Every structure is written in structure tokens, then in C-alpha cells.
From TrEMBL:
Domain of life: Bacteria
Domain HRDC: 245-325
Protein known as: 3'-5' exonuclease
GO biological process: nucleobase-containing compound metabolic process
Length: 427
């Protein structure tokens, strides 16, 4: 780094609106072109990994962590590169293909605070390779709570620290080997300033009186168990809302499952095997034969005869299913019905929801944060649909907590919901 860059590396926190705290003059961000110690070598052997583990165990303070996946190219969401940075250890780029078990690295960092940006996106793939934090700081979530209008990493680094990160490699195929140098530079820069960003955001959250709120949010993320497998994932096929008949839904299900098996076997993204659009078009058309299938979008001239025959056989299986094995029109509803139907089903509940939404919206605006971070819309719906029999503030607070609301959320929102429930009960 140059002297100017070293000076600029000191956190120069700006207002969430983008204006400098002590100056009304906008300054151009400084391009961050190279990691301060250069691009670290890719760690892909046991011996090199042992050196990294030892270095990071000796390091001090929080550790910045990031992971790169090959979404849209490979099956699943596994990590293909892990980036780390820590005071006293510098930066490291670890290849989980060459080093698939990083539990030793995770153990070396046990008890340390991990800094991640959008932690819930990276934690599942990190968990797969043995890296599970017990404490974390999520810079994206911190930005949301602090009221920043743009919370992508590049936008946050620019508005908070005054640096412009390189763009353009976030959506590349990170399973490529060897990884090109520009990609490695991009990856190393992603953790270059995470510690600085964390420190600046902590100060801003403290200034706004939200630091304890953020800590509760981070603790909730770190302690959350792995998400269970999604039930009937085929129902999330893009365009599924067009499919109305049970036989057509069976075609979607059979094609989706066949595509998933092929994608897993080939280790490619399911969309590269067959698009969602093609699946839905086939379900709507219910083609009689290969010739009829071949003229549908997604099954055109690029697809060979053998592939077309395989997809047609899958469709024919769905067509031959007895009615008892056809899927039901909708997924099982475990919560309240869609709010648009409340006015007809339960006008009082609709009135409660309207009052609650207005109150939550006003408070979120006052606190300068997104409504969904103040309290999830689903939680508000559940409390309004089935309020406590005795809707006291204590009872409402207990109801919110039972749905997973953090203590700070309960304290902020329970008075509003109590008032909304009381007003609508009296009308």
C-alpha cells in the first residue's frame, strides 16, 4: 500500500445515507487493486494447510472469513475456495478440493469471532468442510440494522471505508482449476478490509444504540441448527403458479426429480440439464410423443433424440400414475392463510394485521432499518391470526418469543402489537 492508502485504511465511517460524518463533500472512493501483502498462494496440500492452521492459531483478534461457491455451474452449494484474514497471520486462500477437511482450521479458530458478510449464505458450505463458528459478526446484517441503503460488500466498503473493491468475478465458476490470478486477487480482496469494516460498523451501531441488538442477532445466527431439507422442493420450480391440474403437477415432479438425479450424477447445476421453463412447458402441454415434445421451449434442436426419449419416458410415467399417487394442489399450510383472504375468513384478524403492520412500519422507519429486520412479517401474521387469549403485553411478548423473536425485538415490538390487538378487540 502507498502512504495515502495506509492513511485511508483507517475507518472513515460515513452516514448510512452516504455523506461523510464530518464533511458534506463527497470524495471519490480509492480503488483497492492489490492485497497489502500480495496474492497469497492457494493452499491445496496437507502440509500447506498445517502451516496456515498454525499461523492463524497464533494470530490475534477476529478472523475474516469468506467462501466462494460455483452456483449455476455445479450441483449443490459446496465451497470451492475459502478466504481468511487475521491480524498476525495475514491472508490465506484455501482450496477445499485439495483440502476437503478443514475441521482442524475450524478448531484452531474456536472461540474467536468470525467476521462474515451475509453469514447465512456461507455458513452451510463452511459447515460441510468442518468450519463452524461459535461467535460471529455479520457485516451485511450490521449494515441493515444501522440503516445503510445498500448492504452489498462492495457498497459497504465504499460507503464506510472509502474504498472501491474490484467487481466482476462473483458469479464465475469457482470450481475451475487452476483458478486464474485475477479471480484469486478478487477473492483475497474480499477479506482484505472485513476487519476494518467490522470495527467501523460496531462503532456506528454503538452510536445508534443498536449494538446489543446486533449481538443478539449474531448469536442467533451462530447458534441456529442446520436447516432441514426442504419438503417437496419441486414445488419451487419457477413458473409453477401456471400449473393447476394434479396430472400436470405430477409431470413437474417427475421431471424435476429426474433432472436432479442427472445433475447430481454429473455434478452440474440442474439448470444446465433442463431449465425450469422447459419443465413447466412440458407439464402444461402434456406431449403425446417425442415429436410433440421436441417443439416445446427448452427441448429444441440442441437436444439429441436419446435425451428427448428419456424426458418423454419420464412424462409418460407421470401420465400413467393412478389418481391416488398424484400430488395435491398445494403444499400443506402450517401457518396462517395468505393475508389477502383474511378479510373474508376473519375480518377481525384482518383489522388486527392492518393495525400491526402500520405500527411496525412506522417504528422501522423511526429506527431506520428494514421492517423484516425489526420483526419478520411471518411472526406478525401469526400473532395477529391467533393472538393470546389475554392479550397483555406480557402475553404478546411470550408469543413473539415462542416464534423466535430475539429479546430486543420483543421489547421493541410487543407494545405495538399489544396496542393493535387491544384497539381491534374493542371495535
Amino acid at each position: 500500500m502507498t502512504d495515502a492508502q495506509e492513511t485511508a485504511a483507517e475507518p472513515d465511517l460515513r452516514n448510512p445515507g452516504g455523506a461523510p460524518l464530518d464533511d458534506d463533500v463527497e470524495t471519490a472512493p480509492i480503488p483497492l487493486l492489490e492485497p497489502r501483502e500480495g496474492i497469497p498462494p492457494v493452499v491445496a496440500t496437507r502440509e500447506a494447510l498445517d502451516e496456515v492452521i498454525a499461523a492463524f492459531a497464533r494470530g490475534t483478534g477476529p478472523v475474516a472469513v469468506d467462501a466462494e461457491r460455483a452456483s449455476g455451474y455445479r450441483y449443490g452449494q459446496r465451497a470451492y475456495l475459502v478466504q481468511l484474514r487475521r491480524e498476525g497471520a495475514g491472508s490465506a486462500l484455501v482450496d477445499p478440493v485439495g483440502c476437503p477437511d478443514l475441521s482442524g482450521l475450524g478448531e484452531a479458530l474456536a472461540g474467536s469471532e468470525w467476521i462474515l458478510h451475509a453469514a447465512t449464505q456461507d455458513l452451510p458450505c463452511l459447515r460441510e468442510i468442518g468450519m463452524v463458528p461459535t461467535r460471529l459478526f455479520d457485516t451485511e446484517l450490521a449494515g441493515r440494522l444501522a440503516g445503510f441503503p445498500r448492504v452489498g460488500l462492495g457498497a459497504m466498503v465504499e460507503s464506510v471505508l472509502g474504498y472501491a473493491l474490484e467487481k466482476g468475478h462473483s458469479a464465475v465458476d469457482w470450481s475451475t482449476r487452476p483458478l486464474p490470478e485475477p479471480w484469486l486477487r478478487y477473492a483475497a480482496l474480499d477479506v482484505e478490509l472485513l476487519v476494518d469494516l467490522r470495527d467501523a460498523l460496531e462503532k456506528e451501531l454503538d452510536r445508534q444504540g443498536k449494538l446489543e441488538w446486533a449481538r443478539q442477532e449474531f448469536d442467533a445466527i451462530a447458534s441456529a441448527p442446520p436447516a432441514p431439507p426442504r419438503k417437496d422442493p419441486w414445488r419451487r420450480t419457477s413458473g409453477m403458479h401456471k400449473v393447476r391440474r394434479r396430472r400436470q403437477m405430477a409431470i413437474v415432479r417427475e421431471l424435476w426429480n429426474a433432472r436432479d438425479r442427472i445433475a447430481q450424477r454429473r455434478d452440474v447445476s440442474p439448470g444446465k440439464v433442463l431449465s425450469d421453463t422447459a419443465i413447466v412447458e412440458a407439464a402444461l402441454a402434456v406431449p403425446l410423443n417425442v415429436q410433440a415434445l421436441s417443439v416445446l421451449p427448452g427441448f429444441g434442436h440442441r437436444m439429441g433424440r436419446r435425451q428427448l426419449e428419456q424426458w418423454q419416458q419420464t412424462i409418460d410415467r407421470a401420465k400413467a400414475l393412478p389418481d391416488s399417487e398424484l400430488p395435491q394442489p398445494g403444499a400443506a399450510v402450517t401457518g396462517p392463510p395468505p393475508p389477502r383472504s383474511w378479510a373474508d375468513k376473519d375480518p377481525a384478524a384482518a383489522a388486527r394485521l392492518s393495525a400491526a403492520r402500520a405500527a411496525v412500519s412506522a417504528l422501522a422507519e423511526e429506527l431506520n432499518m428494514p421492517q423484516e429486520n425489526l420483526i419478520t412479517p411471518d411472526t406478525v401474521r401469526r400473532v395477529c391470526w391467533e393472538p393470546p387469549k389475554d392479550a397483555t403485553r406480557e402475553a404478546v411478548a411470550a408469543s413473539l418469543a415462542s416464534y423466535g423473536a430475539r429479546q430486543w425485538q420483543v421489547e421493541q415490538v410487543s407494545p405495538l402489537l399489544t396496542k393493535a390487538l387491544a384497539v381491534t378487540a374493542a371495535t
